DNA sequence: TCGTTTATATTCATAGGGAGTATAGCAGGC
DNA sequence: GCCTGCTATACTCCCTATGAATATAAACGA
């Protein structure tokens, strides 16, 4: 019998590294190395995702069924057999959404306590 | 000669616990125990700040000059001599502001990747 | 007086991340 | 072919941060 799915809220709060990984996968399946590059580029160096942190975090996320590995391969001419592709599971999407809502609330508090100027308010 | 003040960005990303503490102090000075209560209430239990985490985080924040202890005491009839009051330093405000902007950008990404519904958008 | 809440602090165990290293496949230049 | 550098996954060592539990003691209310 499969383990009961824990409620998304029980994984919160996510560490900054883990949330960056989930954000990266929210755009579609990716392999590990490209997650690393995308996070580095997107956060403009604010969060540097090291190889060690990434692959251990991915192992944990697989274990928690937040992320799963794809069976299929891309078209042979685009493929690199060393790659392993990952995507968010349904649970993973819910966890990422719940964390996003938590951060939205936090930003609301930051705003009301004058930590953000008007032009910072996305 | 005092240590040169490090740039606010060098403290990023903050751990969820640390950002909650800074958010709490952004509203004004507080003593440790009341930070714990405020975080628990405000985040509706999503982030449970334990005594151990709180006081060790405060010690680190004092050491990094992100938080400082108040000399003065409140009026004697409101005081409890066991309490130690903390407030954000100028650096602390800048660090909290920088982290807030980082989260605003993350939320923008989460939104564009359909992790948030319209009514979640604060 | 006694139990509960407030308040700070410490210890122990574990999770998580940074830096560095290992291994190996791939791609381009020569 | 060979060398070099980049891509890709993975592991180790070390340190930091958090959770859980406990200690201590003052304040408070029945």
The overall pLDDT average of chain A reads: 88
| Number of DSSP helical runs of chain A | 4
Low-confidence stretches of chain A: none
CATH superfamily (homologous) name of chain A: Winged helix-like DNA-binding domain superfamily/Winged helix DNA-binding domain
Strand content of chain A: 5-15%
Pairing-aware structural class of the strands and helices of chain A?
Answer: mainly alpha
CATH architecture of chain A: Orthogonal Bundle
Helix and strand run of chain A: HEHHEEH
Principal-axes geometry of chain A comes out as globular
Distance between the termini of chain A: 45 Å
- Using only C-alpha atoms, the radius of gyration of chain A works out to 16 Å
Topology, pairings included?
The structure is a homodimer of 122-residue chains.
Chain A: H1 16-26, E1 30-31, H2 32-42, H3 51-63, E2 67-69, E3 85-88, H4 90-112
Antiparallel strand pairs in A: 1-3, 2-3
Helix pairs in contact in A: 1-2, 1-4, 2-3
Chain A binds a DNA duplex (30 and 30 nucleotides) through helix 2 and helix 3.
Characteristic terms for this protein:
homodimer; 122 residues; mainly alpha; Arc Repressor Mutant, subunit A; three-stranded antiparallel beta sheet; 4 helices; 48% helix; DNA-binding
Textual characterization of the structure:
2 copies of one chain form a homodimer. By secondary structure, chain A is mainly α. Chain A has a single domain (15-121), classed as Orthogonal Bundle (Arc Repressor Mutant, subunit A). Chain A is 48% helix and 7% strand. Chain A is built from 4 helices and 3 strands; from the N terminus they run H-E-H-H-E-E-H. A 3-stranded antiparallel beta sheet of chain A has the order 1-3-2. Chain A starts with 15 loop residues before the first helix and ends in a 10-residue tail after the last helix. The mean pLDDT of chain A is 88. The A-B interface holds A 9, 12-16, 19-20, 23, 26-27, 42-43, 46-47, 93, 96-97, 100-111, 113-116, 120-122 and B 9, 12-16, 19-20, 23, 26-27, 42-43, 46-47, 93, 96-97, 100-110, 113-116, 120-122. Chain A binds a DNA duplex (30 and 30 nucleotides) through helix 2 and helix 3.
